[in-house]
Amino acid sequence: MKRSKYIFYTCIALVVASCSKKLEVASPELSVTPVSTTVKAGETVVFTFGDEKSPDNLFFFSGEPLQQYSNSYGVGKGRLALNSSGYSFSFQSRFDYNGPPADSVAKYGSQTGQLSMWASTDFNGKLDSASVKSATWTDITSKFTLPTAQHASSFTNSGVNNLMDVLVKGKPLYLAYKLTTKRQRDNGYSQYWNVQNFVIQAKDSVAGQLPVLYNMGKMEFNFVDMKWGGRSSILSRTATVVRVGGPNPYITTTQVEDSIIQATGIQVDPSIAEAWAISTKINVDSVFLGYDTPVTIASYTTVKFPTEYSYVYSKPGTYKAVFVGTNRSKDETKNVVKEFTITVMPQ
Fold first, then answer.
1. End-to-end CA distance of the chain
2. Which SS3 state, helix, strand or coil, does residue 17 take?
3. Number of alpha carbons in the 13 Å side-chain half-sphere of residue 329
């Protein structure tokens, strides 16, 4: 009985030891030879592989933008969008009115010039009236095109404008829409604005492209209602549209006579109202865009390791072509790297 227990516990110890042992991998071997390192644009570059034991996985970086080994994961910092040329901003907008009777706008008019756009680099990010008032805001309305006709069937494009003049290195940027509504009994109905398709772009530090850095989802506009006069502005946001409007002048939703037509003594039409839709903090120095990823030439599931690999460079230039051979287990990864300078001449 004692012998059986000894054998049992010995087996358990062996199993535990085998489970805890690190799974090591052999260092990969890789021989690569380019048939030629100088070609013309559009010609094929051929790389041949040697006969020694091949790695489990083989990857290729062409050296072109978005395909650079130096910007890959674990090697470099990846690609960044920089503000050296300024961030560009654009959006679309349209406006209606806050649901007055059909003939009210014609009879009593409507307010104009309510919506304006602002930028701040010292807003503290707190969504309260005191924080909005204490921040320094720059009016950037004139940079953009806003619609002039209500109930338009389509949104008006703002145009793409550079924000370089409002950026401050090392400080975040906040963008905001402000809607100011005067007493509607005296100045006409408030407009009800819909704004969508917010896009901020900047040049990719590597590829020179203009990726979208911030859109509606990333800018996350939130509201601050100053509530002057005690009446709330009409504010809402969906996944695609930000909506801002002045206070509803109706006493109830079913009453057709409003405070523009007749003063009732009930405070439904304040002398002035102000509401802000403010973006989340925007990083103005750089935005991480991700790592460059290679082309997979072979993996451990490949039936037969290739004897050569062909690639075509479409544009003239000097490129660093890189092959990475990898052996991997759950515990460790070992790489072998082969680099070649490829010169691509004009056709």
1. 85
2. helix
3. 10
Q: Which two tokens stand for residue 331?
A: 């515990």
The first and second tokens of residue 70, run together, are 């130096």
Q: Are the C-beta atoms of residues 79 and 289 closer than 8 Å to each other?
A: yes
Residue 169 DSSP one-character state: T
DSSP assigned state of 121 = S
Three-state SS letters, 256-281: CCCCCCCCCCCCCCCCEEEEEEECCC
- Residue 21: what pLDDT? 61
- Confidence bin at 302 (pLDDT 50/70/90): confident
The pair of three-digit structure tokens given for residue 253, joined into one six-digit string: 């939703």
110, 97 contact by CB (below 8 A): yes
Burial of 57 (0-12, 13-18, 19+ CB in 10 A): buried
Lowest mean pLDDT, pick from 149-153, 173-177, 195-199: 149-153
Q: Domains of the chain (ranges plus CATH)? A: 25-76+292-345 (2.60.40.10), 82-288 (no CATH)
Cβ atoms of residues 178 and 276 within 8 Å: yes
pLDDT at 204: 65
Q: What angle do CA 181, 262, 113 make, to 5 degrees?
A: 20
pLDDT tens-digit profile of 20-55?
566 677 889 999 999 999 999 999 999 999 876 789
CA pair distance 169, 94, nearest whole angstrom: 33
Whether the CB-CB separation of 184 and 233 falls below 8 Å is answered with no
Q: Rounded to whole angstroms, how far apart are CA atoms 30 and 341?
A: 17
Segment 56-82 mean pLDDT: 87
Query: Phi and psi at residue 8, in whole multiples of 5°?
Result: -60, -50
Residue 315, helix vs strand vs coil: coil
* Residue 257: predicted pLDDT: 45
Model pTM greater than 0.70?
Answer: no
Q: DSSP letter at 58? A: E
> What pLDDT score does 177 carry?
96
More confident residue, 311 or 183: 311
CA 52 centroid distance within chain: 45
